[in-house]
Amino acid sequence: MNPHLVLPHASWPDPAMQSQITAQLTLPALATLFGKGQRQSTPPQPWLHWLQTQFGNAAVAPLTLALDMPDAAPGFWLRADPVHLHVGRDQLSLQDARTLDISQNDANALVLALNGLFKDDGWTFYAPHPTRWYLHLAADPQLTFTPLDEVIGLNIDPFLPRGPNAMNWHRALNELQMLLYTHATNDVREALGKLSINSIWLWGGGQWPMPALPQQAGRVVWSDDDIVQGLTRASGGDALPLPLGAQDLPARDGLVIVDCLAAAVRANDAQAWYAAWQALEQHWFAPLLAGLQDGSVHSVTLSAPDAGWRVRTDASLRWRFWQGRRLPF
Hints:
The chain is α/β, with parallel strands linked by helices and 329 residues long. The protein is 34% helix and 21% strand.
């Protein structure tokens, strides 16, 4: 058994705050795996870019469309995910749908309103999932869109659509924001103490049906992430749900995408990020270290793409007296 754990968002966006958070962490199993393993520095990569180097450069919208709407009409599809824009003193920052508690009824009502607004423009919105919305166009708009994960918590202005017709799209986004701001669904949400869904984020565009990816038959990937599942299936691999911990991992080699850190970063919740490291220690690092020590695990690889490190550890770690324990922070 040679699991490869991948840890998205293993670095906190603010390096100074990361130092404060990690100074209080005690993670003895991770310190052993990292300190006594064969470490490799890698160029830091955004999570989506890393995935595409592993599976092929596929557009996200068609990938997840295959899961959500496999009978979708041909054409150009964008993710049009619901978001909350927070109005700061001099900027708009974004909070993504995974933190907004959106019901399917919310999604259906808002998408119906959007389709009414753009019925004469050739734009058609769909919400097959509460947090995954889509925009269908007849042709590629020839614009550059920024992946959602790269914008969360930041000023959105530098990341708005770019290209020859971008200003028309910016105006359309302003119109839909005004529509959403005044929609009765958001009145109800705010009365319940929820954040409003006051915009969408366009990203991940590509043609449907999607071009074939390089095939990796037999590859096993454990993940609850919709993009990872889509990539795995499109490349001929076996996409399986993420177990609760290493003790529930079948004795098979493969990628294990453990994304509890990512949820904390998306929510800008430093306390949750701290707690996620503790959970990783308890449910993943400690059991895998025990497996190396008793021989049930032959090797463990840990990768943190955005943090720029990778380490492989095997049963010989017990003889590496010259290598001390250390954490990757």
